[in-house]
Amino acid sequence: MLNLKAIAVAAALTLSTAGLAMAAEGSAMDALTSATTVSFKTVTSAELNPLSPGYEEVDLDSLKARIQGSPALLAQLESFGATIDDVVGITGKDETDVTILVQG
After folding, report:
1. Please, what is the angle between helix 71-79 and helix 60-68, to 10°?
2. Rounded mean pLDDT, 89-104
3. Pick from 5, 3, 22: which is nearest to 101 by CA?
């Protein structure tokens, strides 16, 4: 049993972050569909540090799919000067104000 736990921990530690994103506030992903204000912010690799306050892993593929599923959000992202591949996370102050993070 102990060996299985060690394998699970090792597997979790070796997971790639390619499918994960930074999120502050657990409801930011849910708020994306009802937000009245969506803004974009360029962040650096240092700001995406898992040890930083407010860091929470979210499914990056799901976030990108939600953005791609909304022509208005995709247009906003493109007019910000970013592509869907630049999206690295999401934050939210409340259910009406969401910020999509793009790596700069």
Report:
1. 100
2. 83
3. 22
Q: Is residue 5's pLDDT more than 50?
A: no
Decide: 20 and 80 in contact? Cβ < 8 Å. no
Question: Residue 1: inside a domain, yes or no?
Answer: no
Q: What's the total number of domains in the chain?
A: 1
Task: Indicate the length of the chain as a whole number.
Answer: 104
Which structure tokens are listed for 89?
């996370």
Judge whether 6 lies within some domain. Answer: no
Cα separation, 62 vs 7, in Å, equals 27
